[in-house]
Amino acid sequence: MATTIKIIGFKNSGKTTTINSFIKFAKNHNISTFTIKHDVHNGDMDQPNTDTHSFSDSGSDTVALINQTHLMIKQKITKCFNVNSLINDKYDLFLIEGFKDNDFKKIIMLTDLNKEPFQNMDNIITFASLNSNLCKKDPTIADFSTEIKRQNWFKNYWSNNEQNKRRTNTF
């Protein structure tokens, strides 16, 4: 099964910025990428200034937008979509924004030091923030304040995952 990482957090916590950094790194290292966006606002896909548009611009091989009524790769759905059905071995990496309740590994993006809303979640890889001052106050929060820091974190994560060592060359 492909490596799957969910990036979750509150609005403007750095989820999309982090995903775009990972996509760029993956693209530069020939890691095929499928990026999935959960949209609770029933927006359109791949419009200028949207997350899905930025995912495409960053180089994701496939981008999906899922809301209450559609899977965009424009396939109508009649019930709540199970994101797990999209995970397959065609891609090396799946990056999912949102879908807090699934069992995949998670990076939780923070805007403040409050980790309490996430305490009952399983499979947390790390807490991270785009705010380096926050990371200085709590060294258990990964510093994602720059593109290079996000990509270095991803490189280390990818390289240390035994499953990935079989799939790609080392960096």
UniProtKB/TrEMBL annotation:
Source organism: Candidatus Gallilactobacillus intestinavium
A GO term for molecular function: GTP binding
Annotated Molybdopterin-guanine dinucleotide biosynthesis protein B (MobB) domain residues: 5-129
Entries under NCBIfam families matching the protein: mobB
Gene Ontology terms describing biological process: Mo-molybdopterin cofactor biosynthetic process
Domain of life: Bacteria
Name of the protein in its database record: Molybdopterin-guanine dinucleotide biosynthesis protein B
A matching Pfam family: MobB
